[in-house]
Amino acid sequence: MAGRDNRVIIVTGASRGLGRMIALRFGAAGARIAVNYLARQNDALAVADSITNQGGEALPLQADVRRETMVDAMIDAVVKRWGTVDVLVNNAGITGDGLAVRMSEQEWDDVLATNLTGPFHCIRAVSR
């Protein structure tokens, strides 16, 4: 990415792993990054600090993508801060490691809610 990238980008699940790397890469290019996290606040703050220390802008936002009201509040906070959302990276996800026969119905529901319903909530919210 040559030059400064002024896009507003939301990265879900940005406190660690692939989401962290995506947020840092876009942040280094100059994009304004909403660093979404569920529970790892310190990790999300570290990602946001790294982006701002490189001269970028970052906004850490706690939201459970499984909950539509939390997603709506996250999108509203981003739009209030930067006026728009240009890119959504639906990265938040969980795995139910193990055999399906050993997986509880609650574990299955959590995987579906995070990996399928979560992106649906995010896409719908930014599309408005």
Uncertain parts: none
Q: What structural category characterises the helix and strand content?
A: alpha/beta
What quaternary form is this?
single chain
Shape assignment: globular
- CA-based gyration radius: 15 Å
* Content of β-strand: 5-15%
How would you characterize this protein structure?
By secondary structure, the chain is of the alpha/beta class. It is 49% helix and 15% strand. The chain has helices at 17-28, 41-53, 68-82, 105-127; strands at 8-11, 32-37, 57-62, 87-89. A four-stranded parallel beta sheet has the order 3-2-1-4, with helices on both faces. β2 (32-37), α2 and β3 (57-62) form a beta-alpha-beta unit. α3 packs parallel to α4. The longest helix is centred in the C-terminal third of the chain and has 23 residues, at 105-127. The chain is globular and about 50 Å long. The model has no long low-confidence stretch (mean pLDDT 92).
